[in-house]
Amino acid sequence: MFVLLLLASVSALPAQAQEDNQLPLPVEVSAAPVFFFNTPASSLEFNFDNFTRRSESDTVQVAYQIQANDIRGTRNVLMIQQSDLLDGVDLFASLESFSDLGGTAVLVKSRAEPVLLSPSAQPVADKQVLSGTGRIVWGDFTIVYKAVAREDLEGGSQAAILTLSFLGD
């Protein structure tokens, strides 16, 4: 949203402006903060080929889009939180790629290795400034998720909710 306000007053013109047939017109421009964050994914499913301790599931890649003009922080700007711990299973996440679509900053990995998710928010991405203030982040990115068995797994399924959060400061 872009707002342009034009303010004018003819009654209080300075003497010089009246003499030169000029009308000063103060202008104020403001741009509303925009934050759009989306993914076409509705759920994630992890499958194990083996039920034994240290077995790894297949990886799941999820594509996201972001368009924001007021991301102020630089460290830990993207966090992921897992609602509940899963019995015998750890979930990991890693920023795989970021494709800039015209912002002044991009997302980069917070850590080189995949992040172990938990009920407390874990950092997955930092912001790297490309130009200016770097507050505009606009692009597509992919996060890769994987599950690892902490112990031998019994048959059955478990569920949790992953929540992604962007922190502006």
Notes on the structure:
The chain has one helix spanning 15-19, and strands at residues 2-6, 27-31, 35-38, 60-68, 78-82, 89-100, 105-109, 115-116, 122-129, 137-149, 162-166. With 169 residues, the protein is mainly beta. The protein has one domain: Immunoglobulin-like (Sandwich), CATH 2.60.40. The strands form 3 sheets. It has a 5-stranded antiparallel sheet with strand order 3-4-10-6-8, with no helix packed on it.
Topology:
Elements (H helix, E strand, L loop, with lengths): L1 E5 L8 H5 L7 E5 L3 E4 L21 E9 L9 E5 L6 E12 L4 E5 L5 E2 L5 E8 L7 E13 L12 E5 L3
Antiparallel strand pairs: 1-2, 3-4, 4-10, 5-9, 5-11, 6-8, 6-10, 7-9
In what range is the share of β-strand residues? Answer: 35-45%
What share of residues is helical? under 10%
From the spread of the alpha carbons, the general shape counts as: elongated
CATH topology-level fold name = Immunoglobulin-like
What descriptive keywords fit this protein?
169 residues, Immunoglobulin-like, five-stranded antiparallel beta sheet, four-stranded antiparallel beta sheet, 11 strands, elongated, disordered N terminus
Concise summary:
The chain is mostly beta strands. It has one helix at 15-19; strands at 2-6, 27-31, 35-38, 60-68, 78-82, 89-100, 105-109, 115-116, 122-129, 137-149, 162-166.
